[in-house]
Structures are given as C-alpha cells and as structure tokens.
Give the backbone structure.
Amino acid sequence: MPSSQQSAARQPADAIPPTAAIAPHDAAAAPGGLIAANGLHVRPVAGMVYMLLMVSLLSVNDAAAKWLTAAYPVVMIMFARSAFGVLPALWLARRDGGLATLRTDRPFAHLLRSALMLAAWACFILAIARLSLTQAFTIGYAAPLIMTALSGPMLGEKVGAWRWGAVIVGFLGVVVAVQPGRDGINDGALYGIAAAFLYALAMNLSRRMSATERSSTIFFYYTLTGLVVTAAILPFVWVPLDAADLWLFGVVAVFGSAAHYFMAQAFRFGEVSLLAPLEYTGLVWAALLGWIVWRDVPDTATLAGAAIIIATGLVIVLREARLRRRAAPSLQALPCPWFQYHARAPARPRTVAA
C-alpha cells in the first residue's frame, strides 16, 4: 500500500465466506485491493503469521455463527458483529488520516457495495447453517473465479486465456463439490453460490471505488450500514438470549473485528503472492472445527472439488500478480474471497491480458 497508514484496512466477511473461503469469511474479511510494493518484503514472516491468525479467527468466527443459527435468526448474528465493528472501523479511519477521511463524494457507491456485502454475508450464514463448514468454505472459494469472470464487464479488464481457463476449470470444481443430484442443488449450496456471486460483485465494485476511496472509508460505511440495517430489522426477529450463548455472540463480534486488524497487518509486511495461498488454510480449520463440534467428515467429492477450486484460484492469483508486476511494478492486486480492505491508489492499467 502507499503507506503504512493506508495499509490499515481491508473487509469476507464477512466473510467470508474468506471467509475463505471465505469462508465470503466479511471472512467480515476479503478482494482485489491495490497494494504498493514498497517495503512489503521487510517482514515476510510477520506477514505470514498475521495472515494465518486472520484465517484462524475467521474460521472460528464462522463456526460460532453456525452454532448460533440453530437457535437465533441470521439478523441477530449480523447485528452482534456490526455493533462491535463500528469502533474498530472508527479507529482505522483515525489511523488512516483522521475522521475527516470519512467524507465521500460517492455515497451511493458505498450504499450499493454495503448492500451487496450484507446480502452476501446473510447468504453465507444461511449456507453454513445447512452445510458442513468444509462444504461452505469450498463453495466460497469460488468468489475469485466469479470476480475474474466479471472483471471484463465491470472493470473493463482484458482476461486472457490462462485466467479464462482457470475460471472454467474452477467452476467445474464447484460442480464437483456441490454434487447436484436428480432433484437439483440443495438449499445450502444455492445460498453458498449466491454468497460467492454477491461477494464477487461487491469486491469488483470495491476495486472501482479504490481509485478514489480509502480502505478505511469503505470499511466504515459498510460497518455503519450493517449496524443500521440490522438494528432496524432486529425488533421484528428478536429471540430471547440464552445466557449460555452470550460468549458465542462475543466470539462473532470480537474475532471478526480482530481478524480485520490482522489482515491489515499481514498486508503491511507481506507480498500478495506470498500471503494468498495461506488463505486456503481455512479449509483445514473448517475440517478440524467441523469434526470437533459436529463430527462432520468431508466426503471425497467435497475434497476433490476443493482441490480443483484452490488450484485454479492460485493460478489466477499468481498470474495476476505476475501481470501486475509487468504492467505496474508498484501495484499488485489480490482477488481473494475474504479480503475486504482496499488501498487508495490510482486506477490500474487495463492493457495486459492474462
């Protein structure tokens, strides 16, 4: 990013899974931000540690959300995250140049992006309520493929044969993971696909906005919109809280916000091509948490689909990083499903096809 201050944000979350997979892990977490190359290799190990911490926190966050869906409506879970997230968003804005940076000439773009992100987040929570974490994360990893497919009409980018090939093969991996039967695709998978698609739309819109908007500004308006919308709906869906579940709501609120901080730190110290593959460690967390809490064991089709999607996602990430270095050595972009913070930077060149 242009400076250490401007590197202090990116939001997967809600994720996303993320997550990976998003999990669109908001991850809270989570697509295509521009990052200045100056100084990124100073502390690569620190960047990797922060990245691994971010993925682990978002994975636990998603597991807590999945558990809560058995007794509480989606809006209550989203409200807990949004209410707690406003303070970190204000802190990031202050760190990124002061609260004056929250002034914007693009309120409707912020509103549209926030609406897409909230819809993606809601769909992802509905997906993890119906699927195992491993299945939901795997489908969520399709978001970068969708981002690439939409980058032409939305961003005017030229997508070459390598990336189109990766997109097509990656979508075949989604089909393998989803396992459509005679009755079609189950509800959970449909919610997961919808979450990935909505997340991809939001992230490509973020890439357009990043030419004029700071990452902290984008994150703040998303968090504020989430708080206002969920607070307005909350009285109509409220369910009395069980005291035994309060700590799980705390996990959703605190872990999601902490993950955003670790994400920002990771990209202060590490290069995109170094950090991107680490996001897929979320699948390990999903499998581990799914087995510990629900005794879920990933089936062969899910693992095969995940392998295809991850491989094609890495092809896209590494190919784009290579082309960014060739077209503009000071900038790199990461089409990652759970990354949701973006640097303020000039529009990227559109002349190189991959």
Summary: The longest strand covers residues 33-36. The longest helix spans residues 300-327. The two ends are 23 Å apart (CA to CA). Confidence is low (pLDDT under 50) at residues 1-41, 329-353.
